[in-house]
Amino acid sequence: MSTPSRPNTGSVLIIDLTREKVVKRKVLSETVKRYLGGRGFNSKALFDMIPGRIDPLSPENVLALGNGTFAGTALPMTSRLHISTLSPLSGILGDGNAGGEFSAMLKFAGYEQVIVTGRAEKPKYVFIEDDEVEIRDAEELWGLTTGETVDWLRDEHGDEVSVAGIGPAGENLVRFATTMVDKYHSGARGSGAVWGSKNLKAIAVIGTKGVEPADPERFYGLAKEDIDYFNRNEFVRRIYSVIGTHYGLIQWYPSWRYFQVPLSAEELPIGLRPQDLAEYEVGRTQCFSCPLACKDVYYLPSTGEYGTASEFESIYALGSNNCVTDTEAVLRMEHMADEYGMDVMTLGDTIALARLLHEKGILSRGDVKGVSLEWGDAEEQIELIEMTAYRKGFWDKLAEGYRNFAKLYGEDALAYCYDVKGVNRGWYEVDFINGVFTLSHATSTRGADHLRGRSWAYWENDKLIDIEVVRGMLEAGLPDYRKDPVGALIYGERACTLADSLGRCKGSINSWLQAVPLVWKYPVFKGTAMLLTAFTGIEFTEKDVIDATDRIYLTEMAFNVRQGIKKKHYDVKFPPEFAATERAKAQLKRHWELVDEYLERRGCDVETAYPRRETLEGLDIGYVADQIGGKEFPEWDGPVRGVA
Amino acid sequence: MTSLSRITILTKPEVQTSVQVYCLQCRDAACERVCPVDAISRDRNGAYVINYDRCIGCRECAYACPFGAISFEVEARPIKCDLCDGEPECVAVCPHDAIVYMEEKKAARELKKAKAAGVAYGLYGGKETPEYSRKKAEEAVEYLMELVEKSGELDV
Ligand code: SF4
Ligand code: SF4
């Protein structure tokens, strides 16, 4: 028998835009125990509500916003919003995680999740103020940038309002348009186009209710320990809070000229070094409840605008990968992407791909009338970004996004498309970091990705932040990637699933310390279990936590199976020149061995890559097996268009 | 013990920057002067405190304060910073040492030093100094390189 949940857990808000109907549903404590919140709730909702292959831009698609179990509490860095949908970029699960205040506000208004279905006839926005939910006209808002939208809604509803919504790119169905939260925080993989297809411009929320842990003393006691840890940490004070994710420019080898050269700290061009970017910084900011403040606030003298969060990803994708090294130009492009509401990584990588295809003669002059596509032409790139957001001329094709764009030019173009399941992430040798790097791109349930388990599997950043923590985790049984890369990756994937479900930031520099609360004291998931018990009043053991993450991950895999994902889609791409070498062939062999081992240990069929019935039943989700067992699904080849 | 917050955070949304509003414990305080029943007085730490036994809830002090530091919003009585009896809680919890509590003369000296060092006062202080931000970032990078060198320890 299920019991209604405690007051620490709000309800689910279901909005049907076709019928303009709003329904509220209580969240059962059993659901919290099994799916935690945030990404867990979202992935389950998508699996249950999208039965098969549909056009992601059709009214049948579902947009789920989940705020995470601990949103709005004093536990640090726990107010990230998880946004999930069937992605118009990839045609599989597409989810993203955005910061800001929305997630906390939604919790204060009394909700765990908002689910949007259908399509409004005319542009609409949703206004939520605690129990009141209204679907309102947004004709005046349509066409506005994300910044203007937020300003408009603040004028209308007051400064406290927090906003998730889209800019012109989402309205124009750019396939990598994002959901933007409070102007500057972006959740990727084309979710913006789904809002656009539903004629939904924004959701504005004001919440005034508190969040009450079941055992406040215990919960706040543990939360305070975690805050104190970060406040004392040298790395946080001297690096994180000063240069934020620009840390990656020094540590992560940003790529030059469409993934041709990974740049070391010494090779970093002048203009793109952290100190160059810092000259534009006029302040720092953060998400709700975060003591770290990884985000810079920058000022652009040439346009008089302020922007926020010029992250590593935007600097490499829009900058070095396109050979653009003019600091202000890169910041301006980043800001434009925020204002139009586009994912900087897919945007930058797709432009770089277009430059390469042009150089190779695969894109002919005629295709790109009036554009030079010279490497490093910053001014032209600024224009291209605008044209892409409005799908003007040739750039209509670029707006299709990475793999869909390459597909328009046939096999020759696809050969240079380094994607997994339709999502771009560059190329890497399998030998690199004992196979973990490439394997993690292949196994990610939303396509090639660095935030699904990769850095966590080999302590990429934790060893700098606090080496003792890594030692502690190894002692507590975390597999060592040098001996057991697959085991390490599965643990990494669990950590990320957990963070996304709790609403915790995975750390904009990707670290266990941030992703898993209290891991520095109670490795690996023990601290989380203690916090969950204190907060929800439901008894959680470490095993319950692990099972919940596996339940979520396998549900996501099953979702993708129904979208036509087969074993062959776990491949990784190399540039054609390298792919032809013996070295590459040996590496691919090793990759497939790792994939087999991964599938086996995840409890999936090694031939088909489908999750096995026993595994699903063992996690008490036999109903998922009923949905995929003994069925044939047409093979995936990007997003479906029209009725499947 | 929980109590109502006496700090209001004002956000300037277009630049995602916030400032705290709290009582400045003015030398010649408007709130004290206007109070018709003399409910406001200075305590031994120099904080203006409200004697609720005398307060009649007229709101005069809130109207008089030029900084909006007295609020009536959450309770039907004036709420203001009382410096927590000499050990301010806000100072204790602020993770970035953005609030400090010190003797007046010392504070004036510190401020002078900071100005001389070219510390940016952010958007509200008026003058942004690119040199200062650059220097801070350079220090961060330098420290990071040191850490990278040392991290060979775990053989990873
Ligand atoms: S670390 Fe950065 S992204 Fe994460 S919660 Fe803090 S401010 Fe937001
Ligand atoms: S409340 Fe206002 S007038 Fe009174 S002491 Fe504080 S700042 Fe001065």
UniProtKB/TrEMBL annotation, chain A:
Residue ranges of the Aldehyde ferredoxin oxidoreductase N-terminal domain? 8-209
Provide the alphabetized UniProt keywords: 4Fe-4S, Iron, Iron-sulfur, Metal-binding, Oxidoreductase, Tungsten
Family to which this protein belongs: Belongs to the AOR/FOR family.
Q: Which Gene3D superfamilies match?
A: Aldehyde Ferredoxin Oxidoreductase Protein, subunit A, domain 2 (1.10.569.10), Aldehyde Ferredoxin Oxidoreductase Protein, subunit A, domain 3 (1.10.599.10), Aldehyde ferredoxin oxidoreductase, N-terminal domain (3.60.9.10)
Whether 4Fe-4S counts among this entry's keywords is yes
Statement: the UniProt record of this protein carries the keyword Metal-binding: yes
One Gene Ontology MF term = metal ion binding
Q: Which cofactor does it need?
A: [4Fe-4S] cluster; tungstopterin
Q: Name one Pfam family in it.
A: AFOR_N
Please state what the protein is called.
Answer: Aldehyde ferredoxin oxidoreductase
From TrEMBL, chain B:
Q: Does the keyword Transcription regulation apply?
A: no
What name does UniProt use for this protein? 4Fe-4S dicluster domain-containing protein
Query: PANTHER family, alphabetically?
Result: DIMETHYLSULFOXIDE REDUCTASE CHAIN B (PTHR42859:SF10), OXIDOREDUCTASE (PTHR42859)
Q: Does the keyword Transport apply?
A: yes
Q: SUPFAM superfamilies from the entry? A: 4Fe-4S ferredoxins (SSF54862)
Q: Name one Pfam family in it.
A: Fer4_4
Give GO terms: molecular function aspect only. 4 iron, 4 sulfur cluster binding; metal ion binding; oxidoreductase activity
* Keywords noted in UniProt: 4Fe-4S, Electron transport, Iron, Iron-sulfur, Metal-binding, Transport
Q: Where is the 4Fe-4S ferredoxin-type domain?
A: 11-45, 46-75, 80-104
